[in-house]
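Annex B. Sample input.
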Amino acid sequence: MPKKQAKSKYTADRGIPGAFEGETVTRRRFMVGTAHATGAIATSAILLPALGFALGPLFEEHKQRWQPVGAPDEFADDTYVPKVITISDGIGEAGKTTVYIRRRNPQLDTDKLPKGFESEQFVAISTRCMHLGCPVRYTEAAQRFICPCHGGVYDFQGKVDGGPPVRPLDRFYNRVKNGQVEIGPRFSVNRELDRFSPRNPGEPLDGIGGILYPSRPTARKLDSLPQD
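Annex B, continued. Sample output.
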């Protein structure tokens, strides 16, 4: 069987109209390739910064700190005391949030404390609604946390009691040091008050929620929190 002759790499040998001697790429293909390359560069110049802006916070490391909020005897086990802490520096009042704090009640707070936190004496609840992140407030008469925006209702422990929230209110680690109650990093909880690394509002943690909504890569894990 005769060997098939290979096509010449030169456009003139292939009989392409308008070809130049020694040319291996047609002008049309060259212009099309140049246009595609220019478009890819322009798209990358727009897309890459946008992706960096969107995904950067997921990998941004934040220093965890403990903030004193008052003496232990300021907090009872049958009501909450609001305290203001700073969660973001350098942006004034916008970087602050209110935390509702009470002493743990052994008859009510039967959730098992994790290893290393068995001596935790207080419950510190976030005011960020787990529906869309609106601020909630504690109502003394009803012993409920109420979200005025979308009707979210939480019971005395911060568990969902009505409305659209998908999980209980987040909480904060706490400890007593140098005669002061100190508030540490935030963590999320499911219906059983099992602790998880922080999640965003609208992300359930029961069932397969913990798999569908994993924590950020830099979220501080339970066993790596500073205790001293």
